Amino acid sequence: MIKTPVVRxxxxxxxxxxxxxxxxxxxxxELGLDLVEISPSANPPVCKAIDYKKFLYEQKxxxxxxxxKASKIVVKEIRFGPHTDEHDFNFKLNHAKKFLKDxxxxxxxxxxxxxxxxxxEQGELILLRFADELSEYGKVEMLPKMEGxxxxxxxxxxx
Length: 159
Description:
alpha/beta; single chain; 4-stranded mixed sheet; 2 domains; Translation Initiation Factor IF3; Ubiquitin-like (UB roll); 4 helices
């Protein structure tokens, strides 16, 4: 599928150089390899004589390895009401500290049922106090924000 008439061929067991496309394809075919365009923007385009199936396999393997090494972000959710009591607040605060120490993000929200939506200020105060109490364990990633009937704050662990 290479459309240019002249290409630079590189690879193992291949004499590096500039060839016309027919010569390059015949060289790759003699070695039992495929001619793959690596850098189409170069002048002339660079092609490599490789086993394409093996190349795809190794690429897939590398992607799988990268995906395995990537840390999975866990988000723990803690829910308050606009009239959350002091004891309940402290109880949930201790859970949040444990979650942050374990490396999980904490998503705290105040859920407003029915007419309790008129206490938005109280909900915001609860969330800001919550974030302030957790300041030594994590940093605020998203300030309190209303989403429908709930006000949400996200706290990420400190590294």
